[in-house]
Amino acid sequence: MSEKNEPIVLTIRRAFPYSAELVFDAWLDPEVARQWLFATATGEMKTVEMNPVVGGEFLLAEQRGETLAEHFGEYLEIDRPRRLVFAFATIRNEEPTRVTVEIAPTDAGCILTLVHEMDPKWIEYKDRSEAGWTKLLENLEATLAAM
Fold first, then answer.
1. Could you give phi then psi for residue 35, rounded to 5 degrees?
2. Strand runs (DSSP E) across 3-108, as ranges?
3. What are the residues whose beta carbons fall under 8 Å from the beta carbon of 66, sequence distance 6 or more?
4. Farthest CA pair distance, the chain
5. What is d(CA 89, CA 54) in angstroms, rounded to the nearest whole number?
6. C-alpha atoms less than 13 angstroms from C-alpha of 131 in its C-beta half-sphere
């Protein structure tokens, strides 16, 4: 199998000076998530719908100029405060990718490891996706700092 046919696996780690419970809950609380999850500095979050149970779905939609950026998903695993797994797509009815969030407590807070598994057809989006998740985790920390 050539490299271009292998699954894409992005792994991003970030330490947070907050409890694992606080960081985990920020992913599933609609009022907190609307402040950082798929939110941009210039966009306006229009819709945040979350059914945080295994098999439940979510939709976050942000108006970015003329574009309504939608993010869809289904919760596959919820093990508070340690592990969250969800199917993820930005186009409705598109085959989703898989995102795993692992949170490990530390003496100083916790370490979050995000793994995004994508089909090789998304290779052109690899760098952009990695930059996007990195920015989102920065947004998460800023949101938690402001709480």
1. -80, -20
2. 8-16, 44-50, 57-64, 67-79, 83-89, 97-106
3. none
4. 48
5. 17
6. 6
Q: How many CB atoms lie within 10 A of CB 33?
A: 22
Tell me 7's DSSP state: P
Residue-wise pLDDT tens digits, 55-67? 999 999 999 999 9
Distance from C-alpha of 113 to C-alpha of 12, rounded to nearest angstrom: 6
Q: Residue 147 corresponds to which tokens in the numbers above?
A: 């709480």
Q: Residue 81, preceding bond cis, omega within 30 degrees?
A: yes
Euclidean distance between CA atoms 15 and 31, whole angstroms: 23
Q: Is 99 left (phi over 0), alpha (psi -120 to 50) or beta?
A: beta
* Residues 10-64: tens digit of each pLDDT: 999 999 999 999 999 999 999 999 999 999 999 999 999 999 999 999 999 999 9
Cross-strand pairs, 69 = 62
**Pairwise CA distance, residues 37 & 47, whole Å:** 12
At residue 52, what is the residue type? P
- Residue 103 near residue 82 (C-beta atoms within 8 A): yes
